Amino acid sequence: MQVLRKAVLAASATVALAATASAGQPASAAPAKTSCTFADRYISYPSTTHATAVKWAVRVDWCYDGKTVSNIRHYDYLKEDGGGVADYQGLIQNQLSYPGSAHYEATLVKQAKIALCVFKIGCYRTYYPLERFVLGNNGSYRLEQRK
Question: What are the pLDDT digits (tens) for 43-92?
């Protein structure tokens, strides 16, 4: 009886393996585990008095499974306003793209316009900070920053 039970179990495993292979999937393929991560980076400028800094930041959250990048969420913000001298004037570039048809990586480019101003006098300098993230399907990223 024990030998017969082992033979039936082996036969059913072979049938299940054949059914999986005939469905177009490898017999040993397990679903990829999805993980998520984030990056939060900033660019800093001196304020009027140089005592405080103006910091513009970009945060990006994404998920990955070793093959693709998904669920990308992103936003920018002033991390520090230099004691009130920073006048955030919005994004002049905000682009998310994927190379090719497979989403094995994604590129996020954000560029802002920030003016430094003194109350009742006016603005004396404008910055155009840019951050370019290349998000990988393994949770890694590359970052290019330009002031």
Answer: 999 877 777 789 999 999 999 999 999 999 999 999 999 988 899 999 99
Residue 58, Ramachandran bin (φ over 0: left; ψ between -120 and 50: alpha; else beta): beta
Span 80-126, pLDDT tens digits: 999 888 999 999 999 999 987 778 999 999 999 999 998 888 999 99
Does this model's pTM top 0.70? My answer is: yes
Which CB contacts under 8 angstroms, 24+ apart, belong to 117-120?
117/85, 117/86, 117/87, 118/48, 118/85, 119/84
Element (H, E) at 69: strand 69-81
Assess contact for 111 and 133: CB atoms under 8 A. no
Q: Which residue has the tokens 């993980």?
A: 35
- Per the listing, tokens 């800093």 go with 44
Distance (Å, rounded) from C-alpha 37 to C-alpha 61? 6
Count of residues in the chain: 147
Q: How far apart are the first and last CA of the chain?
A: 77
